[in-house]
Protein: Cation:proton antiporter
Organism: Mycobacterium celatum
Amino acid sequence: MRATLLRIAILVALTGVWVLLWGNYSAANAVSGLAVALAITLLLPMPPVPVQGRVHPLSVLRLVVRVAWYLVVSSVQVSWLAIKPGPAPPSGVLRAEVSIKSDLVLVFAVNILTMIPGSIVLEIDQLRRVLYCHVIDVGSGVAVDRFYRQVAEVERLVVAAYERDEDWQPAEEAA
């Protein structure tokens, strides 16, 4: 039942994206979007992603609020860097280690970190759980520390929302 609901949700989401790309709603757009969604899901199936743990709604809400705050603050910081007089601060690639167990939760964290202006994840060492991130401002120890605190907080929030130790059952034990 859960798999069927997930497939329906994916079809609805893909159809919605199709209609949004066309810019107006019509029956023809909806039907053609559904046809494209069916073709994508049938001809290009994604491999199954093991999902462990459970979702904790209050922790998800905390995550969403904190990420929204990071988006606002970092957007202002990046905007200021773009318009302030003088040379741009030095940028660089920083290495951040995370202790996220699930690949799916790691993807959530990487997407959040990439979405926040001022940094982008360049590479993920999946086995060692190391992220290599390009950061716009590494000109001071304060800026570098701010980046590492941000990574640590995003990690803490996604783990609290999706991967608490008491809910974690690796695939070998769950089978």
Notes: Strands lie at 92-97, 119-125, 130-135. The helical segments are 2-22, 27-43, 57-83, 103-115, 141-162, 171-174. Residues 107 and 124 are 10 Å apart (CA to CA). The radius of gyration is 20 Å.
